[in-house]
Amino acid sequence: MSTRTLESIKVQIDEIVEKDIVPHLEFWEQERIVPFHLINNLGSKGIIENICREPDGFDNKLYLAKKIGKLSLGISSTILNTLNIPLYLLRNYANEELKQKYLSPYLQGKLIGAVAITEPHGGSNFINNCETRIKIYENHVELSGKKHFILNIPGADFVIVLAKSGNGNILSHTLVLVPLDLIDSNGIFIERIQTSGLHTAALGIIHFNNVLLPKEYVIGRLHKGLIYLENALTEERLVGTYALMSMTEEVIRETYSYVNNRPMFESKLADLQSVRHKLAELSAEYEIANLFLEDVIKQWRAQKSRDSSTKAAMAKLVCTQAALKVINGCLQLYGGRGFLHEYKISRIYRDALGSTSFAGTLEMMKEIISNRKI
Question: pTM score, two decimals?
Answer without folding.
Answer: 0.91
